[in-house]
Write a structure and sequence with these properties.
Blueprint (H helix, E strand, L loop, with lengths): L2 E5 L2 E4 L4 E8 L7 E7 L6 E7 L5 E3 L7 E6 L4 E6 L8 E8 L13 E2 L3 E6 L1
Parallel strand pairs: 2-11
Antiparallel strand pairs: 1-3, 3-8, 4-5, 4-9, 5-6, 7-8, 9-10, 9-11
């Protein structure tokens, strides 16, 4: 059974940092892209960042470039999202997801495996 389990969310003041982690299990992800999406109240889910498992290429939404980094650990089979200089507009539920080689990495419908999400709240 494939599982993606997020951890690391919480409450932080603006300007602070948080590190999210996604533990993946149940299959091999060697041909997959691992992504992070977020959904704020009343808004659609949006792409945040992604990493190709083999090539380690990384991709970011313009809104988080220069503030967020994404890394994978091939031994522990985890993907982390380091979030720095957080802003109140980063407040959302953050989801870890995995997609096969086909489909756009920027679109949530391309991803066929999802975690349950972790809440990130940034206070002003």
């Amino acid at each position: 059974q494939v599982q993606l389990i997020e951890s690391g969310g919480g409450l932080v003041q603006a300007g602070g940092s948080l590190r999210l982690s996604c533990a993946a299990s149940g299959r091999t992800f060697s041909s997959y892209t691992m992504g992070w999406f977020r959904q704020a109240p009343g808004k659609e889910r949006e792409f945040v960042a992604a990493v190709d498992w083999i090539a380690s290429n990384t991709y970011f939404a313009d809104s988080v470039k220069g503030r967020f980094t994404i890394n994978k650990d091939s031994v522990r089979i985890t993907v982390s999202l380091q979030m720095n200089s957080l802003k109140p507009e980063d407040t959302a539920v953050y989801y870890c997801a995995a997609k096969p080689a086909v489909g756009s990495r920027y679109v949530d419908t391309s991803y066929n495996m999802w975690g349950h999400g972790t809440q990130v709240t940034v206070s002003s």
